[in-house]
Amino acid sequence: MTAFEELGVLPELGQAVDEMGWTLPSDIQAEGIPAILGGGDVLMAAETGSGKTGAFCLPVLQIVWETLRDQMTGKNSGKKHSSAWVLNPYDRDDSLAIDPDGLLCQSREPQKWQGARCNHGVFGKGKYYYEGTVTDDGLCRLGWSTEGASLDLGTDKYGFGYGGTGKKSNCKKFDNYGTSFTLGDTIGCMLDLDSGHIGFSKNGQNLGKAFDIPAQLKNSAFYPAILNEFRNFLIQKSIFQGYVGVSSADEGNVVKPEPNAPACIIIEPTKELAEQTNQQIEIFKKNLKNPAVSIPVSEQIRNISAGVDIITCTPGRLLDFVQTEKILVSNCRFFILDEADSLVSAKNHLSTIERLYSLLPKITPDGTRLQMIVCSATLHNFDVKKLAVYDALSAMGLSSRHSAPCDVDKVKAAEEGSSECRTSDIECCRHFFKTDGIHFNDDIRPGSETPETLSEGTKILKAEYLLKAIRQHNMDQGIIFCRTKLDCDNIERFLNSYASGKAKFLICTDVAARGIDVRGVPFVINVTLPDEKANYLHRIGRVGRAERMGLAISLVSAHPEKVWYHTCPSRGLRCNNTNLTSQRGCAIWYDEMKLLEDIEEHLGVTIAQIDNDMIVPVDEFDGKVVYGAKSGYAGHAVQLSGAVALLADLERSLQLSYLRMFNDPKTENVK
Q1: Rounded mean pLDDT of the chain?
Q2: Which residues are 561's β-sheet partners?
Q3: Residues in CB range of 272: below 8 A, 6 or more apart
Q4: Cα gap 426→421, rounded to integer Å
Q5: In terms of domains, do 178 and 226 share one?
Q6: 238 pLDDT above the threshold of 70
Q7: Residue 2 domain-assigned (yes or no)
Q8: For residue 317, what is the DSSP state?
Q9: Is the residue at 9 inside a domain?
Q10: Considering only CA atoms, which of 119, 116, 243, 227 is closest in space to residue 188?
Q11: Taken in order 160, 164, 168, 173, is the CA torsion positive or negative?
């Protein structure tokens, strides 16, 4: 048995992760997998690369697979009433009690009527009947409703009820119908899908047609629904000719999941991340035939229509597919937000996610409750806390305020940009490095202390320090983060003029960072600090994965740097407005020292500073670190070897002492 199987994971999934080299679950996996398997709504917060994807994919895969297996074999998925027609304990008002058999309900709420629906419905054609007996004094109501109807039966256009005062109700219109009923009376409810009628009976007497089913509801599924107290709610036979008891309805007319109604929806901030998650799920499920997994892009619509169980997608794409009914959410039981801090921070994504959540049924047709899983590299995000479901989530994976990887050395190189001795170097580099051009029309005089000169010097010296860091650490691969695409292009041209072509660097912005999946990349260099502290964690989380050591170097300017901040309609295309945004321009002053303070406060540590030679001090325990290699902690092992030996001796003596006590005849009375 693998370590993952001890968490309750299927042997097939345990074998798959074992073949991936996952010997032991990470902390977030050990905590998150059992919680999700147990039906919990969770908020998983841990650093990038800690295994959050596996923490939610493995249990979700297992539950979806078990559900499909039980459907194919006719088993009841472990739920007592999943196949029987009973009142749905998950589709009821809070103050309505339902007995264990699911056939008796009662409410003592004095302020508001309490309702419930059955766990199954019928559609298409046929004539169906059920009945209920009033079990208590007081008013009550029963009838039929569609899936989208209010539990307060008869108060909207989707519900049709008959109440104890002798009134039929729909859309809050209460009209005389039949006679009143009370304790001991048995009320029958008839649904004629062939003729499009709804009627009722009292104690075996047919009261006639009560409603015509509206044309827009002809293709809807109808569920038995009640308000307040009834017993013997659902029966298999009907006393009226031509009608059958709902629990004896033909299987072809009973609501069941559509093929394009996935059981799990995973939302990612970018298409690249959606593809990565999809690929990871395919690896996990390689020993299972089901479930079917898909990314909903246009060329895959046919596959989705044929049947898909798990979908990974971006918010906008999903909303389009849901609104056009290419994807149905009626059977969704898992709603997963991955990289939630990035999702909710993006423009319009928060409102899109809230809208999608409002469209999801909180109870699936088989009576299963919707599970919410929110994953993030950071928990302290105000936008994440604005999610409607935030308060219902159980947070896990956070033992402190920060979530910075422990196997990444984080250092900063302060850059002054104003020293007189740097004047010649700035002039020299200026001929080789093209900046963003924001100071093209400014009076730049190397050696002066004007803000514009210091800003231009910052841009040039950062390029020089970047090259120096690459050479000092013999970097052959890594990730370089810049603020804008223009900066990325300038850095790329600069490095191409010096590099031999053997080094492999990915130069990108924060937007692209969320779509990067790297393994064992040893270096990341922040040419400019991000303006959101959460993005710093995502940046440095790109390295140091899979127990490999990484080095994150941040080039921090001691002076504000003037940068582009385009608010113009062209978003920077042929824009030369260097005025500040406060002056209706497209530029701001970027204060990295303030950003650094925010990051250090968020992490709860002070990031070590290195000199301009880019040499990282040697650790006193581990000696020289080889970045990109497995973290060995050899020095710590030597230091702790004595303590470990003492613990082993103590454990041995304790076990021997216990055995002697257990076998000593004098202790028989104690035992």
Answers
A1: 80
A2: 590
A3: 514, 515, 516
A4: 10
A5: yes
A6: no
A7: no
A8: H
A9: no
A10: 243
A11: negative
Residues 420 and 387 in one domain: no
User: Which residues are CB-contacts of 315 (< 8 A; sequence separation ≥ 6)?
Assistant: 267, 343, 349, 352, 353, 356
Angle separating helix axes 485-496 and 451-472, nearest 10 degrees = 50
Same domain, 36 and 180: no
Burial letters for 62-73: b for 16+ Cβ neighbours within 10 Å, e otherwise? bbbbebbebbee
Average pLDDT over residues 347-374: 79
Query: Which residues lie below 8 Å from residue 80, measured CB to CB, with a gap of 6+?
Result: 100
pLDDT for res 179: 93
Confidence of residue 152 (pLDDT cuts 50, 70, 90): very high
Q: φ, ψ for residue 310 (rounded to 5)?
A: -130, 130
pLDDT tier for residue 526 given thresholds of 50, 70 and 90: very high
Using only C-alpha atoms, the chain has a radius of gyration, in whole angstroms, of 33
How many angstroms separate the CA atoms of 545 and 49, rounded?
6
- Among 560, 107, 68, 579, which Cα is nearest to 307's? 68
496 and 534 both lie in a single domain = yes
Expressed as residue numbers, the domain containing 388 is 24-71+257-396
Quote the number of domains for the chain. Answer: 4
Query: What's the whole-number mean pLDDT along residues 139-164?
Result: 92
Name residues whose C-beta falls within 8 Å of residue 309's C-beta, 6 or more positions apart in sequence: 64, 68, 262, 263, 264, 290, 291, 292, 293
Of the residues 366, 396, 426, which one is the last residue of a structural domain? Answer: 396
- 241 and 155, same structural domain? yes
Rounded CA separation 112/93 (Å): 10
pTM of the model: 0.55
User: Residue 568 falls within a domain, yes or no?
Assistant: yes
Predicted pLDDT of residue 401: 45
H/E stretch holding 550 reads strand 550-557
Measured over the CA atoms of residue 401, residue 403, residue 405 and residue 408, the dihedral's sign is: negative
> CA 481 from chain center: how many Å?
25
Same domain flag for 238 and 326: no
Q: Render pLDDT for 23-62 as a digit per residue (tens, 0 to 9).
A: 888 888 888 888 888 888 888 877 666 788 899 999 999 9
Distance separating alpha carbons of residues 565 and 561, to the nearest angstrom: 12
In a shared domain, residues 180 and 278: no
Same domain, 246 and 270: no
Per-residue CA distances from 60 to 32, 53, 290, 295, 296 (Å): 11, 11, 12, 16, 19
Q: Looking at per-residue confidence, does 110 or 54 come out higher?
A: 54
3-state class of 515 per DSSP? coil
Show the CA angle centred on residue 347, arms to residues 47 and 592, nearest 5°. 60
Cα separation of 516 and 538, whole Å? 10
CA–CA dist 413, 18 (Å, integer): 41
Whether 36 and 371 have beta carbons less than 8 Å apart is answered as yes
For residue 588, the surrounding DSSP H or E stretch is strand 587-590
The predicted-structure confidence for 557-615, as pLDDT tens digits, reads as follows 988 999 999 888 887 888 889 899 889 899 999 999 999 988 888 777 788 888 888 88
Asked if residue 384 is part of any domain, the answer here is: yes
From 220, 253, 286, give the residue that closes a domain: 253
Distance CA 626, CA 631 (A): 9
The closest of 463, 438, 464, 442 to 453, measured between CA atoms, is 442
Instruction: For Cα atoms 530, 531, 534, give the angle at the middle one, nearest 5 degrees.
Output: 70
pLDDT score at 122:
92
Q: Quickly tell me which residue has 């928060």 as its tokens.
A: 350
* CATH number of the domain within which 492 lies: 3.40.50.300
